[in-house]
Structures are given as structure tokens and as C-alpha cells.
Amino acid sequence: MVRLSVINFNKMGAKKTTKFEIAEYLDDEEMVTEYLNTILEEGDSADIVTALGHLAKALGMSKIAAETGLSRPSLYKALSEGAKPQFATILKVIRAVGGQLHVTTT
After folding, report:
1. What kind of fold does domain 23-96 have according to CATH?
2. How far is it, in rounded angstroms, from Cα 74 to Cα 72?
3. pLDDT score for 7
4. For residue 102, what pLDDT band results from cuts at 50, 70 and 90?
5. Which residue, of 7, 22, 60, 69, is most buried by count of CB atoms within 10 Å of its CB?
6. Predicted local distance difference test score (pLDDT) of residue 12
7. Residue 2: what pLDDT?
8. What are the residues whose beta carbons fall under 8 Å from the beta carbon of 99, sequence distance 6 or more?
9. What pLDDT score does 1 carry?
10. E strands of 10-92, at which residues?
11. 100 to 65, 74, 92: CA distances (angstroms)
12. Residues 76, 61: contact at Cβ < 8 Å?
């Protein structure tokens, strides 16, 4: 998993590091689609869980919890780093963020 930090410089030239939050940039349907497709194509299972957590935060954890039938604490736990949620939970979250799974042959 890639962890990013943003380095800012103040007027005196001192470095200040802030944590990069991808959820802040997932603000339109095209960006959400591209992000999720990239993770599904290139990531592993842990990356997919993390990405769904980012999407749930971007779209509103309460909204996603309501749509999946899970409590907010359960959703946070299921989508936290190192979590291994059941496939049924993954499907619920994918559908709640507006995604669909399709199988194609190459």
C-alpha cells in the first residue's frame, strides 16, 4: 500500500508534513469510478478494503452504513487497515458506493 504525505513550506522555509487524504479528492463520479477500477485491477485484497474505506468516508460513512445495513462502528472496523471483512460485506459496500462487479474474458 502506498502512503503519501504532503510537504508544505511556510514563509520561513520550514517543512510541515500533512497526511494526504484521498477521500478529499473523491468528489465526483468519474474520479470514484477511476479510483475503484484502478484498485480492482492493480491492488490486492487489502488495497481493495482500504479503497472502499476511502470511498465510504468520501461519500459519507453514515450514508454507506445505512445503505449496507451495518452500524457505523462495524463499517469502520470492517474497512480499517488490516481488516478481513466477509465477501458479503465487500459486496454491500461496493453496491452502496454505486459500484457493480462484472466479469469479462480476455
Report:
1. 434 Repressor (Amino-terminal Domain) (1.10.260)
2. 5
3. 53
4. confident
5. 22
6. 63
7. 45
8. 36
9. 43
10. 15-19
11. 18, 22, 10
12. yes
Beta bridge partners of 5: 19
* 28-62 core/surface letters (b: 16 or more CB in 10 A; e: else): eeeebeebbeebeeebeeeebbbbbbbbbbbbebe
Non-local CB neighbours of 69 within 8 Å, separated by 6+ positions: 92
CA–CA distance, 99 with 26 (Å, rounded to integer): 14
pLDDT digits (tens, 9 = 90+) for 25-69: 788 888 888 888 899 899 999 999 999 999 999 989 999 999 999
> How is residue 77 written as a grid cell?
472496523
If we measure between CA atoms, which residue out of 46, 56, 50 comes closest to residue 99?
Answer: 56
